[in-house]
Amino acid sequence: MPLKAEILGRAGPWQLAAGGRPLRYWPLACLVTLSGPSPSTAAGAPLGGALEPKELLDRFLAGSNRQRQREWPQLQQLGPKLFDPLWQLLSSQERQASNGAIGLLLQWLAQDPQQLQLLESRWPGGWLPNPGPGIPAYGELQKALLLGQFEEADRLTSAFLRQLAGTAAEQRGYVYFSEVTAIPRLDLSHLDDLWWFYSGGRYGFRVQRRLLEQCGGRWEELWGRLGWKAAGIWTRYPRSFNWSLEAPEGHLPLVNQLRGVRLLDALLKHPAIDRPTADR
Predict the structure, then answer these.
(1) 139-195 residue pLDDT tens
(2) pLDDT tens digits for 123-151?
(3) Which fold has domain 151-279?
(4) Which residues pair with residue 22 across a beta bridge?
């Protein structure tokens, strides 16, 4: 495995929520790759003015990636005033991993203890439901991602992949590339959805696949793009990895590379990952 590398995340600016609890501003970098509808909004219209919190939230979700990036810090300054319109939004949304902005808003909401309790009461297994009969919602992984606990989420993902690959993989403690084809499509697709959704579109196997294509299939170039290798040296696990949203795009989840590229190659070629986003 790339002895798993880390560019330590920087603490962002803070704001005070109800009761004086600090809410961290999510970094702007996490909004650059959000997908979803992006009709243009009124050019040059100020974020504040006479607009109500719900109107500001609607404009944020309808905006382009660049507009969202610009408006996100100001939107967060609304603090508790944003809670009610955000709950109205969540109650009216289809629970699908189609817009990473919703995942980021859920993470922001979960920073407040009372709001987190409400989220867990309303959707005990996580906001994203299980993708089909007999398929778990992977609630433990969802919670780790919701809370921004990316190192724990990476550990859980590795454990789930071993379970899905079969008893032999669990017993030896890692997955052979030849076992990847046995991983059910719906499960792997859902794991990927969780990473993509709760990272605002920055993380997940689909992102790593896209970056590999942009690198022309050159793995050594990919390692640098992912932040897994620098100057020919694998970055060290776990302290050298960036367990935050400020890591390079595609940085997570991690895949063991000590036995070569075949495991990651098999994952990125799995039918759950090697397909257009619209078919997910």
Answers:
(1) 999 999 999 999 999 999 999 999 999 999 999 999 999 999 999 999 999 999 999
(2) 999 999 998 888 888 999 999 999 999 99
(3) Arc Repressor Mutant, subunit A (1.10.10)
(4) 16
| Token representation of residue 176 | 């052979």
- State the Rg of the chain over Cα: 19
The residue among 179, 177, 182, 180 whose CA lies nearest residue 259 is 177
Determine the Cα–Cα distance for residues 196 and 40; give it in Å rounded to an integer: 24
Query: SS3 for 6-64, per residue?
Result: CCCCCCCCEEECHHHCEEECCCHHHHCCCCCCCCCCCCCCCCCCCCCHHHHHHHHHHCC
CA neighbours within 13 Å on the CB side: how many for 118? Answer: 14
The pair phi, psi for residue 15, each rounded to 5°, is -130, 160
Helix/strand/coil for 9: coil
How is residue 87 written in tokens? Answer: 């709950």
Separation between Cα atoms, residue 250 and residue 257, nearest integer Å = 15
- CA distance to 27, 47, 49, 246, 268, per residue, from 52 (Å): 24, 10, 9, 30, 44
CA distance 215 to 225: 9
Supply 276's token pair: 């257009």
Q: How far apart are CA 168 and CA 96, in angstroms?
A: 33
Domain residue spans in the chain? 14-122, 151-279
CA–CA distance, 257 with 228 (Å, rounded to integer): 10
Q: What is the pTM of this model?
A: 0.82
CB 68 within 8 A of CB 101: yes
